[in-house]
Specification:
- The structure is a single chain.
- The chain is mainly α.
- The protein has a single domain, classed as Four Helix Bundle (Hemerythrin (Met), subunit A) (Up-down Bundle).
- The chain is about 80% helix and about 0% strand.
- It contains twelve helices and no strands.
- The longest helix is centred in the middle third of the chain and has 30 residues, at about 100-130.
- It is globular.
Length: about 290
């Protein structure tokens, strides 16, 4: 039992960054699937690609005005999110990690929600006889990109303060730019180009965090003392419940209920108004924390 628990913990990035639903449902269910796949030739990237197709299929089923098809779409998206957990746990169990895998994993949710927004906009356009809902879909889509950017950056930052190895996915703009320049032409080059602009946005909206990192690096070099790491994580952890509201689990409840009740426009309001207010609060609180960190 102890060995199994150790193996389970190894499959997680860190329990500190896992939200309640992940800890109680997705991760425990994904773990035995990851262990089973560990004995096969299936790679984490293949699981990610499969999750993209499942999630897109679920999103398409939000277009018909049919409760049972919509419910099937909900179940497919839950399964896709489960697979999104499986690929990460499989990568950590097998040691098969790559920068492209991280980028692909980040894009998976974008593919799901792109399909969801288009399907809901079509659903509403046919229901109400106007295509103005596509404007809301576009605004919601850009809002989602911003929100996903913020949650990914702050959670990866928290992992970086656990240890350099745990937070090895946390990269500066210079590191991303160098990797982009060193990568040959092709899909990898294009993905790094997108990731570079993704990183630019993260840096632009977190000036106090950038100043703090610069100060810590000047004072301690590349490896921060343990007491500094612990103090930062203690304060960062207090932000996690609010940050989690921007995750798939945080938004999916409203999404699923609004679609199943045939009021999908409610989700657009939630995405554009409520979650954008949440992201502003998250950034403001985190920036204040970084400014006051001693």
């Amino acid at each position: 039992m102890a060995i199994k628990n150790q193996e389970y913990e190894k499959s997680l990035k860190s329990i500190e960054t896992e939200n309640v639903l992940d800890r109680k449902f997705y991760r425990p269910v994904a773990f035995p699937i990851a262990r089973m796949l560990q004995k096969t030739r299936i790679t984490p990237n293949q699981v990610t690609i499969f999750s993209i197709f499942i999630g897109v299929g679920g999103g398409i089923l939000f277009y018909p005005q049919d409760f049972w098809l919509n419910l099937t779409g909900v179940l497919l998206l839950i399964f896709a999110n489960l697979l999104d957990c499986v690929d990460g746990q499989l990568a950590r169990l097998t040691g098969i990690k790559s920068a492209i895998g991280r980028l692909l994993d980040g894009l998976a949710g974008n593919f799901w929600f792109l399909t969801i927004y288009v399907s809901i906009a079509l659903h509403l356009s046919h229901q109400y006889g106007t295509y103005w809902f596509f404007v809301a879909a576009v605004i919601a889509g850009f809002s989602n990109l911003l929100q996903s950017n913020v949650i990914d950056y702050y959670k990866t930052l928290h992992l970086y303060f656990i240890s350099k190895s745990t937070g090895d996915e946390f990269a500066s703009l210079e590191e991303v730019t160098n990797q982009h320049q060193q990568t040959r032409r092709g899909i990898s080059k294009a993905m790094y180009f997108l990731y570079r602009w993704y990183s630019v946005l993260q840096i632009k909206i977190t000036p106090q965090l950038q100043k703090l990192l610069q100060r810590l690096h000047q004072q301690y070099g590349e490896d921060f003392p343990e007491d500094v790491r612990l103090r930062f994580r203690k304060q960062s952890k207090k932000q996690m419940p609010l940050i989690d509201q921007l995750s798939f689990n945080g938004r999916s409840f409203v999404l699923f209920i609004s679609v199943l009740c045939n009021f999908p426009w409610v989700y657009f309001i939630f995405e554009i108004l409520v979650l954008n207010i949440v992201v502003l609060i998250v950034v403001r609180k985190h920036e204040k924390m970084c400014k006051e960190f001693v």
